[in-house]
Amino acid sequence: MPRKLRSSYEHATGRLKLAIQKRPYGIRLGPGLSLGCRRNEGPCSWLVRTRDGETTIGIADDYEPANGKTVLSFDQAVTESRKLCHGEDAAEGPTKLITVDKVLRAYEADLRPGRRGYDA
Q1: Which residues pair with 25 in a beta bridge?
Q2: Domain for residue 19, yes or no?
Q3: CB neighbours of 10 closer than 8 A, spacing ≥ 6?
Q4: pLDDT score of 94 more than 60
Q5: How many domains does the chain have?
Q6: Quick check: is 118 in a domain?
Q7: 14 phi/psi in degrees, rounded to 5
Q8: 48 contacts 85 by C-beta, under 8 angstroms
Q9: Model confidence over 37-90: pLDDT tens digits?
Q10: What is the arithmetic mean of pLDDT over 23-45?
């Protein structure tokens, strides 16, 4: 089971005290994975930073209750960010990142004849 994260923006009262700025506040969730909170005029936006870039996953539950899809609590945002980085199994806890072997096997399968109209 993953450890419980503590942050100043874990609750709406802490997030609303943050200064409004373009650059998001962030917390490191693991190697190559961070959860960001961008303080806007309205509710905060949740951002996931991975090695591949940055993705917005929803808005924070500052003014309305979390629904688990578009409006996320802190814990839901952590779970969604882990799912994005590690896959669907991340809800039970951190899993292994994709290995080089898995990437090379997927690449080899993609190069097989008949893929995208390429015939060898």
Answers
A1: 37
A2: yes
A3: 74
A4: no
A5: 1
A6: no
A7: -70, -40
A8: yes
A9: 998 888 889 999 988 788 899 999 988 888 988 899 988 998 898 888 777 654
A10: 88
Place of tokens 């899809």: 69
Whether the full predicted model's pTM is greater than 0.90, yes or no, is: no
Domain that includes residue 30, residue range: 12-94
Domain membership flag for residue 115: no
- Residue by residue, what is the 3-state secondary structure of the chain? CCCCCCCCCCCHHHHHCCCCCCCCEEEEEECCEEEEEECCCCCCEEEEEECCEEEEEEEECCCCCCCCCCEECHHHHHHHHHHHHHCHHHHHCCCCCCCHHHHHHHHHHHCCCCHHHCCC
Residue type, 15: R
Gap between the Cα atoms of 94 and 87, Å rounded:
10
68 HSE (CA, 13 A, CB side): 0
Q: Is residue 54 part of a domain?
A: yes
